[in-house]
Amino acid sequence: MCGIIGITGRHTVAPLLIDGLRRLEYRGYDSAGIATLVNGEIQRRRAEGKLINLDTLVEKRPIDGLVGIGHTRWATHGRPNEINAHPHADKNVVLVHNGIIENFQELRQELTDKGHHFETDTDTEAIVHLVSSFLTKGNSPQDSVSLTLSRLEGAFSLAILFAGYDGLIIGARRGSPLAVGYGECEMYLGSDAIALAPLTQNICYLEEGDWVELLPESAVIHDNNGTIVNRPICQSSVSEDPNNKGNFEHFMLKEIYEQPTVIGDTLNTLFNPWKRTVTLPELTFNLGKISRITIIACGTSFHAGLVAKYWFEKVSDVPVECDLASEFRYREARMPKDGLAIFVSQSGETADTLAALRYAKSKKQHTLALVNVAESSMAREADSVLLTLAGPEIGVASTKAFTTQLTVLACLVVATGITKRSINNKQAASYCRSLIEIPARVNDVLSHDQKISDLAREVAVAKDVLYLGRGTGFPIALEGALKLKEISYIHAEGYAAGEMKHGPIALIEDNVPVIVIAPSDELFEKTASNMQEVIARGGRVIFLSDKDGIKKLGRMAAATIEVPTVDSFVAPILYTIPVQLLAYHTALIKGSDVDQPRNLAKSVTVE
Ligand code: AGP
């Protein structure tokens, strides 16, 4: 995914563009660039690598201009270098793009045949030459953009400047989000509200197919038929600068430590403290009539969905399927009458999950988006929405979004059990009590930070690391492995503990670290035997369990981390914290970029 910003107004825009890109850098950081118009002439500055490189370049070679666009890149086509960095331009047009143009090769060939010269390997450059070709035929910028959009296949959000048209920016969106910001004699475009927060709180999100003409004192939005439309302007919920790390060295650590607060905030929106039971916001479907639940997501959000599958089937009598969005969207899944499809996503913009949502809607499913961004595409397109209140998550490795996703899912599970009468009031009250104490218990686990940091030294030198768990501990094993992989670059695998003897145990040799997730629940003894199989072959077990579990087996492990004893229903939320901290500290030792790990971006809005 990439980040886009555009500003047209009364101020020299270059520093404002750079500041906006700083707030968008979490979306992609392979390269960055800005462009402005100075006396109608296109000026560009681009740099490979992190935004600091562009900032340094602009300081050395400043550019003026009261209208400009900027871009942070996560490379899809073409290596992450300066030549492929956005903005892309010819003499008439300069633009930035987030998304993928699927027919760019065909367009490139057509335009090359007409004499256009391409400088880069990117799909984006085809858009530049297409707009330019319509301009040179005498079309207005507006008509040139409209004609271009009708030729593009794929996903895009665009911000475009035109030589000779001072003050004008044209923006467009199809499949990648784009917001319009309303200022005082100044107008803005941004990939999200975070980018625009210091400039304005008055935000309107373009809808699919919309394009907009911005001048310093006006915004004219057209729908995909070219009809002028009004889109609601809302007050952005992003106020303070989320790019403030406080006293933490990294966003990821700050966001790990925010979990007690944001889990509590999320619980407060789903809980009636007087009745001490779950109270969900209005849903567009009757939970009692749901025949089957399909949970669809990617990455960490998929792991949250997996935990919920175990919960739903234990607490309610609803059959549940959980699938990766990138697989689900193409397998022509059969979907039942009165089925509910739940889409779990921090960003609410992940392309595969959004496409899966659209498929489920085409199959007449009730759709529920469980997202962290209220204005996201999934929130707008699903029938119902449940929000995590994690606040902006800047670290690419998802942490607080995951545990608040689990919190919302746990409440949804309890509400389903009550509605379906598969649990009685006493059982529901017990689940609610266990949920209410989670924020405090998470704080208890955070107190082990130093011990986990010490253990990370052993993990940091490993070539392979295994994570094992059973039941709801299995998705946490997957999550722990993903966290370690994506920020420390160490190969790690999460496995169902019972699966080890079917092959993976061949990986065990002296000193292979094996993180075993084993709360004292009904599966503890089974997991214990798998742990002993590992130890017998030289594996070094880091044992995550509660007081009883450690009393029984702790002495066999190379190290233990004690997690507070809680109801097994909420154990997966709690056991996530140590694996997050272990990944964080290991990455610190390895010296990798914890908040912006290589090759990744915060939200993948391309396939
Ligand atoms: C999580 O640490 C990863 N950064 C990644 O797997 C992420 O969970 C996935 O891309 C899904 O993103 P979403 O929740 O915004 O849909």
Strand content: 15-25%
CATH superfamily of the largest domain: Aminohydrolase, N-terminal nucleophile (Ntn) domain
CATH topology-level name of the largest domain: Glutamine Phosphoribosylpyrophosphate, subunit 1, domain 1
**Helix-and-strand structural type:** alpha/beta
Radius of gyration: 25 Å
CATH hierarchy, class of the largest domain: Alpha Beta
Low-confidence stretches: none
The tally of helices reads 20
Task: Report on the architecture of this protein.
The relative contact order is 0.09. The model has no long low-confidence stretch (mean pLDDT 93). The chain has 607 residues and is an alpha/beta fold. Strand 7 and strand 8 (169-174) form a beta hairpin. The strands form five sheets. An eight-stranded antiparallel beta sheet has the order 3-2-4-1-10-9-11-15. A seven-stranded antiparallel beta sheet has the order 5-6-7-8-12-13-14. The longest helix is centred in the last third of the chain and has 20 residues, at 400-419. The protein contains 20 helices and 27 strands. 2-deoxy-2-amino glucitol-6-phosphate (AGP) is lined by residues 298-301, 345-347, 350, 353, 396-398, 486, 603-604. Residues 298-301, 345-347, 350, 353, 396-398, 486, 603-604 line the site of 2-deoxy-2-amino glucitol-6-phosphate.
